[in-house]
Amino acid sequence: MYDLAIIGGGVNGCGIARDAAGRGVSVVLFEQGDLAHATSSASTKLVHGGLRYLEQYQFRLVREALAEREVLLKIAPHLVRPLSFVLPHHEGLRPPWMLRLGLFLYDHLGGRRSLPPSRALDLTRDVAGRPLQPRYRQGFEYSDCRVDDARLVVLNARDAADRGAVIHPRTRIAAATRHADRWVLATAAGEEVEARVIVNAAGPWVEPVLHGVLGSRAPGAIRLVQGSHIVVPKLYDHDRAYIFQNRDGRVDFAIPYLGAFTLIGTTDRDYAGDPDKVAASDEEVAYLCRSVSDYFRDPVRPEAVVWRYSGVRPLYDDHAGKAQEASRDYVLGLDAPADKAPLLTVFGGKITTYRRLAEAALVRLAPHLDATRAPRWTARTPLPGGDVSPATVRTALLGDHPFLTPALAERLAFAYGSRARVILKGAGKAADLGEDFGAGLSAREVRYLMAEEWAETAEDVLWRRTKLGLFVTADQAARLAAFMAQERQAAASAVAPS
After folding, report:
1. Of 347, 127, 107, 131, whose CA–CA distance to 220 is shortest?
2. Which residue of 61, 239, 393, 404 could cross-link 413, Cys pair, CB 3.0 to 4.6 Å?
3. Dihedrals phi, psi of 155, to nearest 5 degrees
4. Cα dist. 386→79, 159, 414 in Å?
5. 148, 120 in Cβ contact below 8 A?
6. Collapsing DSSP states into helix, strand and coil, what is residue 487?
7. Residue 372 pLDDT
């Protein structure tokens, strides 16, 4: 019997689990696939206020997101890093004075403290102008952050588990029965769990879970919007990103990615299919290439794409006319009649505000879960590994393990923070890390990911726990898959009754 059962292992579900477990609530979380396997790993990899949301007058959302940007920089410095954005100005945009005013508001709306202020740029002289077509002569620069989205999710789950939560990836809830004082949940494998309260944070599946699994008659309020991205070999040498305003009113980003690539996105179009089957279409790839080619000197062509990915955003349906205009805000629907156990459903939301969403969820549940009245704590407490700056960790790793290359030490420091020391403990030479599966991914790191971060497949490791899928060969990925299968088999044999 748990206090709280959460359905959904994306950023919102794991964020709620972490917050609740830290307040003494007994928590169990169910995710039908891998943690962050859907929307939460298919983002533009940004923690940002949403400059374009100012044009839609979503001032509360922008203010909250900008404030959260500061919080996440402090509690997850290994996952969230500052990033400067260049906005080229051209005919058809707002006048320069109006953009400058908007950027001034963006600088001050959320209490910016640690990031540089916006400024005007002469693109004929600044290095940021070199990759652009000569007609772009004036621009602006402002600050936001990049994030490793899937690791943000996994580390929230890890911290929740460290505080007593039970995390069940790859466990689908098939049915739930509602009683006056509790829910009885049945998994697809036939196991039953009881909980006083349920949170439905199933993302794109929130309405099927609400009506088909939980049997609620509460109205749905989700608009599914597909967002696709492409990755190409890096288009320029400096470390700033670009934000481009397109002729159709959409915004695209071009972002330095993993040192060797440029990430381009995103699209916005309504989606009506199975979220599990979403994929970036050739049409979307062509659109993204065409959009950024309006800005760069060298055209970006579809054949240059080395990776494409797509996700379905479960946005709150505010009945906006265009998909890109739909609100990124969140809405919490509480269904708590006097004679029935409570149900809280999460509609919408964005990665940047996940922590505030979790706090708001526990405020709504306070009358039903006494422990949620405990003080708020997640804004002050680092996520696992975030207690030391990654630069400090990198220096320590190189000092304690001289066989590491600087590039590998940096990757480990920014992926795991201070917990990288756990992975490398006792290693005096490269051979101590075991088999190398390419790009510095060792058997010891993989074992850590399996034991501590719920990784079960090569895809989990290469595309979510790390982002090394772009650097390993098919043969290396196959060797990794075989190794992980052997590890799972050995673990199962170790716990099997004799």
Report:
1. 347
2. 393
3. -75, -30
4. 8, 11, 9
5. no
6. helix
7. 63
CA distance 484 to 490: 10
> 44 by DSSP, 3-state: which?
coil
Distance (Å, whole) CA 145 – CA 80? 6
Residue 144's SS3 state is strand
The pTM of the whole model exceeds 0.90: yes
The pLDDT, as a whole number, for residue 493 is: 85
Q: Which residue has the tokens 């979307």?
A: 284
For residues 155-188, b (16+ Cβ closer than 10 Å) or e, as one string?
bbbbbbbebebbbbbbbbbeebebeeebbebebe
164: which 2 tokens?
A: 């007593």
Q: Give the model's pLDDT for residue 498.
A: 59
Contact present, 131 and 236 (Cβ < 8 Å): yes
**Strand duo 173-178 + 183-187: pairing:** antiparallel
Instruction: Map tokens 């939980």 to a residue.
Output: 214
Report the relative pairing of strands 27-30 and 343-348 from DSSP bridges: unpaired
pLDDT for the residue 360? 96
Kindly give the parts of the chain with pLDDT less than 50. Answer: none
Identify the residue whose tokens are 């979790």: 358
CA angle 101, 356, 169 (to 5 degrees): 130
Give dist(CA 62, CA 53) in Å, integer.
7
For residue 132, the SS3 value is strand
Number of helices and strands in the chain (H, E): 13, 18
Query: Looking at residue 19, what is its pLDDT?
Result: 97
Q: How far apart are CA 176 and CA 191, in angstroms?
A: 11
